Each structure stands twice: as structure tokens, then as C-alpha cells.
Amino acid sequence: MAINNKLILIILIGLFLFLAVDAIADLSSEGAVQVARFSEMNLDGWENKSFEGETQYSIKREEQNSYLYASSMQSASALYKKIKVNIHETPYLNWRWRVDKALSELNEKDKSGDDYAARIYVVFKTGYTPLSAKALNYVWSSNDISDTHWPNAYTKKEIMIPLRSNQDKTHTWQHEKVNIKEDLMKYFNKMPKHIDGVAIMTDTDNSKGVAGASYGDIYFSSD
Prior knowledge:
This protein has 2 helices and 13 strands. It is mostly beta strands. It has a single domain, classed as Sandwich (Jelly Rolls).
């Protein structure tokens, strides 16, 4: 993939954020903001962008459970959603995910290894142009994740934060809860009132590999 295409997701989301009508997410009675309701077979508000080939995203059902399944074969495309969430009211991002087919170990700090079986972006604006968008990128690494974070191989606008690795079992759901407010300050030294979008991506274009991952519901919570 050309370098411009590795930058384009953040730029694209940034442009989408600036052109779309602002919609501030409402708190539910439980103090949560729903981002994805895949368990309800719902893809409302999610946009698809292909960069190299196309990762296949589809809702699947397993017994009583519905979820988003992503299958990538030497491809890279993302689902993204514009949603403005007040991270001072609901700083915690929650989701569950699993890797069904893992990638072999890659040098993820190099452009040739910038592929992940599963990742979730949290995008925020730092200025008044699409190029001002930056992102926290929570990833399922193919390595042992001895490093806690690193800049994306293509752009410093994106920080890679490994939560899981190939040491975790495949076909096993993992539950995540991260403090977005703290991570924005820690990795970008920024404290915006809102985040502005969320994206999901399973990609294998650089490694020319094959990967499969599943994503459950995604939501922000106050605690």
C-alpha cells in the first residue's frame, strides 16, 4: 500500500467529521453511549472505505449471539462511524473482540509489517482542518507486546497500543475497557472535551497474509 493510503483513513475520517452535521451522542439511562450494536444486527451509521482490496465485514450469528465478522485476504478496508462522545462524562471505551485467524509475527514498527488482525481507532480533532485529526489505535498485535505503545509506521498522528497478542487464544472472546481520557493525555498530551469518531479495521495488505476477527458491541461508559 502506498504511504498516502496509510494516512488516508485518519484524513478521511477527519474530513468526514468536518463535513458531516455534528451529532452529540446521548447518555442512556445506564450512563452509557452506544457506538456499535452488532448484537442487534445493526450497522446504522457505519461507513466503509477500501484502501487495498476490501476486507469483508458482515454480521454473523452464533447461537444467540450476533457480532461483526471481518475477513481480510491481502486487503485493507475499514468501517468508521462519526460519533461525538463527551469523554469527561463517559471516559471508558468498552468492547469485546476475538481473533479467529491470526497473522504470523510481523515487525509492526515497519511499513512492511503494519497489519493487524484486529484494531479499533478512536479519532479526535485537534484543529480546524481534516489534517488535524489524530487517533488512538488499540490493536491485537502479532508480537509478544513487550512494548506498551509505538507510533504508527506511516504517521505520528496515530499511536499504536497493543492490548492483545498472538499469545492470546484464537476463537476466544476477550473483553476490553480502556480510559480514553487518560490515554489522550498520556500519548498526545491533549484533553479534548469530545472524541469525534470510531473505526474498526482488519488488514493484511502489507504482509500479503490472511486474517479473521470478530467484534462485539462497542460503547462508552462513565465507570
